[in-house]
Amino acid sequence: MNYVPGTASLIDDIDKKHLVLLRDGRTLIGYLRSIDQFANLVFHQTVERIHVGKKFGDIPRGIFIVRGENVVLLGEIDVDKPCDTVLQQVSIEEILEEQRQQQQTKQETEKVKMQVLKDRGLSIPKADNMDEY
Amino acid sequence: MFRFQSLDDDCTLEEEDDGLIEEEDEIDQFNDDTFGAGAIDDDWQEEHKRLAELDERVGLGGGEVEGEVDSGGSKPGSSIHRPSSSVNPPLQSSLPPFGFSSSSPGLPPQDADDRAREGGLAESLARLILEADPAIAGVGAAERPRPSPSSSASSLSVLHSLDQPRVLPQSSSIPHQRQPQLPPGPITSGLPSSSMLSYQQQQQLLRRGTAPMGQMNSHNIWDNSMSFGPVSVSPGLVTHMEDSPLMSIIKEGGLPKRPPQGRSDEGRDLSERVPPPRSSSPVIGSPPVRAVPIGTPPKQPMSHSLNHQVAGFPRGGPAPLLPGGGFRPFFGGPPPPHGHRMCPPPPHGPPSHIPVRHNTTHLHPQHRRMLTQRMQSRGGDRGRTGGDRSSRDPYSNLMTQKEKEWVTKIQMMQLQSTDPYLDDYYYQNYYEKMEKRQDKERDISSNSKKEHATKLITPQVAKVEHTYRPVQFAGSLGKLTVSSVNNPRKMIDAVLTTRSDDEEKREKQVWNKRRQILYTVEKMYSLLLEVQDFEKRFVQTPEEEREALLEQHKTNTEQLSSSLMEKEWDHRVSDELCVMIMSVRKGKRLVARLLPFLPSSQAAAVVMAIARNLPALAKKDKQDQVLGWLVEPLSPVIQSLSSSALTDLLQELQGGEGQLAVVLQNKFGVTMLYLILSEGERMQSCDPNCQLMDDNRWTELVFSVTRELLSVPASSLSPPLFTPPNLLSLFSRYVDRQRLELLQDKLQISASSR
After folding, report:
1. If exposure means fewest CB atoms within 10 Å of the residue's CB, which of A6, B116, B136, B195 is most exposed?
2. Which of A1, A10, A15, A47 has the most B C-beta neighbours within 10 Å, making it the best mutation to test the interface with B?
3. pLDDT tens-digit profile of A79-110?
4. Which residue in chain A has the smallest CA separation from B411?
């Protein structure tokens, strides 16, 4: 709303703490330092936050440059607002472990599901989310 | 994004260098990458070092995301000033429009001091008018003299420059320092004269483009980081302020100390630093680089009185710089409407509550008002909290003002519209309706106040024709070998040349002829296809249209048949044409398909022509060997021939001298011969009334055939496609036993042959 009234711009978001969700599902939190016309973002003191259930863990990542096309959403974090009390912060190792377990259970259920479907002669093709082929 | 410092770090105190620097800049404004101080990029390295050190010191452990306290007062890096050398250039910034006399390079400090007072105002005005890039900090020593992109933006730099005169006497240590700093002048030397201070304040208030500036004037960095200057503040007003923003800021933030002390200073506000400007060298052929990108909001005029004066200049100034010329209506206007409209309320309010200035010419006035209100309210809320945080964030403003403007420029470019109603229909309509509604309400409430209803000025970008003229230097050889998206360069100079070779001509003729033949064949084919499809279509068309279709069919067939005929003789197939068509494979195919559709007389004529020209055809067919296609359609035709016609046909086949020999050599020819003979035999044996024997022709012909058959060596006799069964009986009629046996052997015909 700064230079270009009536439009949206990231200019005002510079130097503020943001949370960005990427296309690959990662959540990054950091200070937005620089942008460009493609909404490529430069994050400073970035932290990757992994959420598993009610727990979350932060992995410090340093400086991130995110290509604009990979951004799903981006929002400013109000540092003054009290943090969410529902979520519980745990250590990195723990959260990674939790994540791994989550992935595992998911894979197992998926496998079982596929097997069941196959037995019934149905097949649901897996959605191809990969960009590379 | 690169940031190049355009000032030579090493060139500190030298006044005599100023002229040099100036000259340097004049040489090639755009090329400070290679020539100018842009080539030297020490500063970013130092910056990096500083920031890195800061990181180490503070530690990044534990994902500490919160901005670090500037324990780093590490380096007083935020102010970027080259103290000494910046004295004179700003003061002597020669700004032609103003006709200010430029001071001589080696100006002694005290002169500079005076100059600062008188020249400074004008100079700042000039800079304002030229809409200088706020991010180019006082490095400006080299930059200042440059008319267009230069002029230090940050108030700090201005401040510094003005402080220089006072600082210089004490600046013994300054030349040593590498880091730009806000000289401690104002503090250590006690409060400067009030006029000086107020002047400085003016300057700050003028230059509100950057966060540092914002800080100066308010506690709320966030609020004002992007804000554009306050509304005009009359100089007199400021002098009254003892509790000036400047002083408060200085008290709060603490002025940067000299390097020995500065680094450990906790109170230092590193975000006062303004990073050095980026290089401004353009790509040749692309639009000229504007240090002040299109879309830059204008700086605010200092006062009402100056408004008009100022107003005149933006048009003069930026206009020549506008690449497309289209933005003139956009930005020509900003200061005056702004000044008039907005001047009254804000500046007299609390200094910390500066309303945001937008480039809102093109906005509907109502919209603008709404925006301002919104900004004000938002500013009020966040004013308190933002300030502390910002003062502790050492990494702020990594993105320079210039860069922000650059991004905004790109976004603004998308707003260009030659037809606002087409591009932004809903926006226009919405505000129109609102206006109407307001007018209605106003009319209801009061009868006057029409003057409040301002006309909506929609941004119109004139469609300017750009004719690209390639960049050329006088005296150079030809054009530059540079191409960009706007001027794709012709890579090859291709020139058409016609070959006048005789052989070429002949070859060409041959090709032309062939093309002609093919063309004829194609035409006939299309007719033929129509004819062939007739029946199918006939069945499908409804009753009413059948007649028309029939008519058409008739025409088609007529056309088809006549196409083969000679021009003068109606009943004779044009040999030339026939041969021509049959010389190509497709033509032969065509004739084969065509024959069944021709009326019998014409079909006979065609067959005659074929027989007549068989040698030629055989020769042409040597490569393709497709005459065999003709056999199938040929047989019914032959079989339908009358005896005289048959005789004629046989005669044709025998034609001139040696033709039969050639015929016999060709498979098709032999087949055809056999067909004829067979037909003759059939006629004789089946039909008692056959007139074949009426004249001797047939007999004679058969005799000659048999003679030929016997005389021709077996090797040159090509086997036919098929052998009719009754040949033997035919021959037995005409030849004696001995010869018959010979023939039998030769032709491999036997009584029981198929």
Report:
1. B195
2. A15
3. 888 776 788 888 999 999 999 999 999 999 99
4. A37
Residue A66 lies in a domain: yes
Write down the pLDDT at residue B301.
43
Tell me what ipTM this predicted complex has.
0.82
- Residue in A2, A4, A31 closest to B395 by CB: A31
Chain-chain contact of A36 with B407 (C-beta, under 8 angstroms): yes
Rounded Cα–Cα distance for residues B654 and B90 (Å): 112
In a domain, A49, yes or no: yes
* DSSP per position, B495-562: -------HHHHHHHHHHHHHHHHHHHHHHHHHHHHHHHHHHHHHHHS-HHHHHHHHHHHHHHHHHHHH
Residue A5, chain B, CB below 8 Å: the answer is: yes
Could A4 and B395 be called an inter-chain contact, meaning their C-beta atoms sit closer than 8 Å?
no
pTM for the whole structure? 0.33
Q: Give the Cβ contact number of residue B466 at 10 Å.
A: 11
Q: Is B64–A45 a contact, with Cβ atoms under 8 angstroms apart?
A: yes
Q: How far apart are CA B26 and CA B125, in angstroms?
A: 22
Using CB atoms within 10 A of its CB, is residue B512 exposed (0-12), middle (13-18) or buried (19+)?
exposed
For residue A25, give its domain range.
5-88
Q: What is the pLDDT of residue B557?
A: 79
Please check whether residue A46 lies inside any domain of the structure. yes
CA distance A105 to chain B (A): 29
- Examine residue A128 and state whether it is found in any structural domain, yes or no: no
**Domain count of chain A?**
1
Percentage of chain A modeled with pLDDT above 90: 62
Q: Say which CATH number the domain at A19 has.
A: 2.30.30.100
